[in-house]
Amino acid sequence: MSKKLYYLFLFIFSFSVLSAQEKLSKEEKARREKNIQAGNPFTQFGYKAKIATLSQGKYLEFHDLDSIVTIGTIRWHVYKNEIVGRIVQDSLNPDAQPIGDRVGRWISPDPLSEEFPSWSPYTFVNNNPLRFNDPTGMAAEDVMPPDDYLIKQNGIIEVTKTNDKFDRFSIENKQGKIESITQINKNENGLLQLPSSINFNSSDSNSSFSLSVKEGNEYRSYIRGDAAAALFGAASQANFKDIGVVGFSLSDGKSPAPSTSHKLGKNGDLRYLNTNKKSASTNIRSSNFDVTRQSTFNEGLYKYGWKDMISERFGNGNLLPHTSSSIERNIHSDHTTHLHLQGFNPKIIKK
Known about the structure:
Largest sheet: 7 strands, mixed
CATH topology of the largest domain: Muramoyl-pentapeptide Carboxypeptidase, domain 2
CATH class of the largest domain: Alpha Beta
Number of helices: 4
Strand order of the largest sheet: 11-12-14-15-18-16-17
Number of strands: 19
Structural class: alpha+beta
Strand content: 15-25%
Distance between the termini: 81 Å
Order of helices and strands: HHEEEEEEEEEEEEEHEEHEEEE
């Protein structure tokens, strides 16, 4: 019996709620009907269609009654039947809204969102623009190239993808034999910390080299794998044993202060070579600067990818091969004591 009373009470309560609907004035009813009939496509034929709206006319839900509409890139006056304007697309503005009915990034779901459930589609390049880029607008891509490198005599670097936490470097010596140089672990940002010294003794003595990092600068000796391969290739081409590295990037790919350009482990500084053939601070305008050997080394650096090197004039206003003057480029840091490498564009073949 109690169940019957419960259901009876529930029915009476529901009926009371439904009966207590908002009572509308005559004017409000007319206003709502006007909002509903705004979507009637048969008005011009005198037919009053039944139109379903979400708010039942409380709000105007049809906004296509403008006299001027957008069709493609044309602005069309629907009453005068004539073109009244044209829209010029701003293809260089990544934040520009779409024209007309085209779907834009602001109102369309990301088709790849299910592949990256832990990242919001509004988080550009996984919130790490130093490590990733997004050239297609589809998904973040790792700018750190993979894994194992074969440095060819012709300046090409062959890269093989492997699923490990280190990079291996091999080189084709000047007699055409493939030899191993070294193996370096990658950090969480995909960068390699150059060892304090690397000594490569090739079976071809003309392909050997040695390089060392300036003491105290180990914290800023992080480099990309392809940049390390290019550096080893240039060093082997030059066949020098006194190459000094001042620094590249910090462990997270940022530029160590006060420098601002040593980003992503691809831009770096090297000591100038001297006639003593020992890695030491050398001024390009000093008497012991070895212009011949440095010019040879510059050719190798250019060959393996650094197309824009910054130095300074010396002697009778001379410049080293493939360099420009920091003073003439309005760069305020002193480049008489080191060669700056930038404009990295190596010849990479992915295997």
